Amino acid sequence: MSVLRGMAGWAACAAAVAVCGCRTEKGVAVKMSGAVEPSVVVKPFGKTKDGQLVHLYTLTGAGGVVMDVIDYGGKVVRLYTPDRTGKMTDITLGFNEVAGYETHDKYFGSLIGRYGNRIANGRFTLDGKTYTLPTNNDPGGVPCSLHGGDKGFDAYVWHSEPLSEGRNVGVKFTLTSPDGDQGYPGKLDVTVSYWLTPDNVWRIEYEAVTDKATPVNLTQHLYFNFKGEAEGTILDHELTLFADHITPVDKGLIPTGKLLPVKGTPFDFTTPWEIGRRINADDEQLRFGGGYDHNWVLNSKGGKLAPAAALYERTTGRFLEVWTTEPCIQFYCGNFLTDQVPGKRGKNLCHRGGLALETQHAPDSPNQPGFPSTILRPGQTYKTVTEYRFGVR
Ligand code: GAL
Predict the structure, then answer these.
(1) Which atom of ligand 1 is nearest to the CA of 363?
(2) What confidence category does residue 347 fall into, taking pLDDT thresholds of 50, 70 and 90?
(3) Which phi and psi (to 5°) does residue 302 adopt?
(4) What domains, with CATH codes, occur in the chain?
(5) Nearest ligand 1 atom, CA 289
(6) Which pLDDT does position 34 carry in this prediction?
(7) % of the chain beyond a pLDDT of 90
(8) d(Cα 204, Cα 170) in Å, to the nearest integer?
(9) Ligand 1 geometric centre to CA of 117 (Å)
(10) C-alpha angle 311/288/272, rounded to 5°?
(11) Distance 331 CA to ligand 1 centre (A)
């Protein structure tokens, strides 16, 4: 199976797609014969602490990939992809119940906004006015605002509806973030669509409009472990990042504003490298991050759909390409994960038990005049696309 398919098949044939609200029997062994009937099935997934009903969408792609997604934070709960023998395994971290996200980790598989990653001191100035955000994180003892604040987009129940177009299936999430939400200016109307295509591409389309100038930086925080959820660390996965520079950080994981060439450093993933190979190198940036937790500036520089990353795991043959219109990608290798977090199958997770590849603009851009702007103004439409293209080798 090739994953370098561009948009081929995206708007392909118009076969009927089952979109229903009934229960389904979803096994782990979905056939990859090409005969899979694409479908979207919706059922209840419990309630949040404050009593809001959460829905679970099971997307079965015509190529066989199966994804369980909830409208609470747009979180991907389970993601089944084939290994090289066709065996389907859940390759993402998540929880079987809403309470798991509320108790343990709200970012697992989640949509992230209004601003992905960190804003220094929870403060920025825009058009002469200073805005204050909740400081909900303090790496290295330095407070900052992380992933949109105390109640980011990960913690909202979004409005949701099933999507189908030809043999593509998906779910559309919409959210109105009110003016002043977590300190951010402007009412922001956000739409995020997840699509599964017949060639096993998970395509994410982000859109937003605002009524006042505001920073916007939306991303997805899915963790991958190609050996399977709670099946050890990701240190043996081989990563490629199509990026010659990172934005180095200080001890608070805030960019210094400089660009650091990766050549000759443990951050050079321009050719495939096992993640664990250089992770313990004597390197200040690795010490600050507790491992890899950095923003790579893509050689494509954003604006058009281009390759950002590739990931491969030798024993299962699972292979992924990440394509994006965004200029940067955060590679985070789960340094904050611990064995105190229960997995979905009764096994606990572990330190570096998953890795995230979050397409984005650079962290702290609202305070960094040298970085591409993340400010959305009234009359403009924020639009980005990211594709996770699954395959095997
Ligand atoms: C990542 C971030 C990490 C950590 C993680 C959530 O996006 O780079 O530092 O905060 O989210 O646990």
Answers:
(1) 8
(2) very high
(3) 80, 180
(4) 2-392 (2.70.98.10)
(5) 9
(6) 53
(7) 91
(8) 10
(9) 7
(10) 20
(11) 9
Tell me if 243 sits within 8 A of 331, measured CB to CB.
Answer: no
> Do residues 91 and 80 make contact, with C-beta atoms less than 8 angstroms apart?
yes
The average pLDDT across 247-274 equals: 98
pLDDT of residue 9: 24
Let me know if 358 is a catalytic residue.
Answer: yes
Instruction: Tell whether ligand 1 has an atom less than 6 A from the beta carbon of residue 288.
Output: no
Structure tokens at 140: 């290295």
* Probe target for ligand 1 pocket from 145, 221, 250, 336, with the most ligand atoms within 8 Å of CB: 336
3-state secondary structure the chain: CCCCCCCCCCCCCCCCCEEECCCCCCCCCCCCCCCCCCEEEEEEEEECCCCCEEEEEEEECCCCCEEEEECECCCEEEEEEECCCCCEEECECCCCCHHHHHHCCCCCCEEECCECCEEECCEEEECCEEEECCCCECHHHCCEEECCCCCCHHHCECEEEEEEECCEEEEEEEEEECCCHHHCCCCEEEEEEEEECCCCEEEEEEEEEECCCEECECEEECEECCCCCCCCCCCCCEEEECEEEEECECCCCCECCCCEECCCCCCCCCCCEECCCCCCCCCHHHHHHCCCEEEEEECCCCCCCEEEEEEECCCCCEEEEEEECCCEEEEECCCCCCCCCECCCCCECCCCCCEEEEEECCCCHHHCCCCCCCEECCCCCEEEEEEEEEEEC
Residue nearest to atom 7 of ligand 1 (CA): 117
CB distance 357 to 390 below 8 Å: no
What is the per-residue pLDDT across 2-60, written as a single tens digit (0 to 9) for each? 222 222 221 222 222 333 332 223 323 333 445 689 999 999 999 999 999 999 999 99
User: Per-residue confidence at 218, pLDDT binned at 50, 70, 90?
Assistant: very high
**Ligand 1 pocket residue status of 332, Cβ below 6 Å:** yes
- Specify whether 326 is catalytic: no
Query: Among residues 147, 221, 294, 361, which one is catalytic?
Result: 221
Retrieve residue 196's tokens: 């599964």
